[in-house]
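User: I'm new to structure prediction. If I give you an amino acid sequence, what do you actually give back? Let's try with this one:
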Amino acid sequence: MYHNILVPISFDAERDISGPLKLAEVLATPDAQVTLLHVVEHIPNYAISYMPPEYLTEARKALQTELDSLAEKLPNAKGVVIEGHSGRTILDWAEEHKPDLIIMASHRPGMQDLLLGSTANHVVRHAACAVHVVR
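Assistant: Good question. You get back a string of structure tokens that encode the predicted 3D arrangement of the chain. For your 135 residues, that looks like this:
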């Protein structure tokens, strides 16, 4: 049983987030803190100039609303939206907040990632805590 669980959430179409959420519920102690973390990748400066000024603010609000909705289904869960490179940012967040378990979804691998997705692979190799990958 785990007391502090991090569940990185990707809203990509090929990701099924139900597995990691169910697993977090099963593996959590009754008083466990569960954090659903979504990392917004940086948008290059040249691309931002083609977007309406309120786009980033509105997109962030929508993501936070979706995470909050997912978090309501788990006891002691909260949603967090941060910006950065997904693999590094997940590890940075984990280093700061010290989860004892990270539960990640991984897509079906292609030739470029052979066994795991690149983000899951990076987190598995470098995390200081247990990592459970759900496919």
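You can read the tokens as a compact description of the fold. Here is one thing that stands out. The beta strands are 2-8, 28-40, 77-83, 101-105, 130-134.
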